[in-house]
Amino acid sequence: MKEKKMDYLTVEVFENIEINNGTFKLTIKGKFKGQPGQFYMLKGWDKEPLLPRPISINHLDEEKIVFLYQTVGQGTEALSELELADKLKIMGPLGNGFDVDNIKGKVAVVTGGIGIAPMLYVTESLKNSQVDLYCGFRSDTYMLDNFEKYVNNINISTEDGKIGHKGYITEIFHPNLYDVVLCCGPEPMMERVVVMCREQKVPVYVSMEKHMACGIGACLVCTCKTKQGNKRTCKDGPVFLGEDIVL
């Protein structure tokens, strides 16, 4: 059966604030759909050839959708310049997400940097689990207070030792304490988490971050190597079983 074509929707920015150095929280009022781990393609500029940017859902409720992003290039810089009532084009929800309804027991959510963005919506949705959060930052932390009522423990590492453990979050994470691990962050960190979980035979699900062009699986820019062959991160992912990923 032919898939239904998805089009961009024009919306208005309700809030776009910098919550940390180069990290922004973008809010759009309205009713939107999306599962934890899914993303939207966002475009708030007319410049070419800048492509839309894939931004994961940070929070979703009946009144609004929230995105968390960092300024790392021309596209996200343009997003950061949007103000109240500015027009923004979005398309989604896209990709697959975490199967939160079937995740149970003790769960570790492991993040690095902006990889924390989709995991708030994930922890909000984990109703049958006891969740511990592990989050690594370079120096300053952000968004942690939003997690407090959804997790049992928050474990922090910073590379400069400003807050929490000095070093990497993988140095204080022990997968053998958990039934399931959910991970999102820089690829080297996720590779380390996958290896650690494999050694302890603990299932791990990772949300892969790849450059995307179309967001719907047509252009094959965002391929990810798996044991079943190359997969499209935007269409077949971004969430994959760690055991299937080829490191």
TrEMBL record:
Keyword annotations: 2Fe-2S, Electron transport, FAD, Flavoprotein, Iron, Iron-sulfur, Metal-binding, Pyrimidine biosynthesis, Transport
Cofactor needs: [2Fe-2S] cluster; FAD
Pathway: Pyrimidine metabolism; UMP biosynthesis via de novo pathway; orotate from (S)-dihydroorotate (NAD(+) route): step 1/1
GO biological process, alphabetically ordered: 'de novo' UMP biosynthetic process
GO molecular function annotation: 2 iron, 2 sulfur cluster binding; electron transfer activity; metal ion binding; oxidoreductase activity
Stated role: Responsible for channeling the electrons from the oxidation of dihydroorotate from the FMN redox center in the PyrD type B subunit to the ultimate electron acceptor NAD(+).
Similarity comment: family membership: Belongs to the PyrK family.
Protein name, UniProt field: Dihydroorotate dehydrogenase B (NAD(+)), electron transfer subunit
Natural source organism: Clostridium thailandense
Taxonomic lineage: Bacteria, Bacillati, Bacillota, Clostridia, Eubacteriales
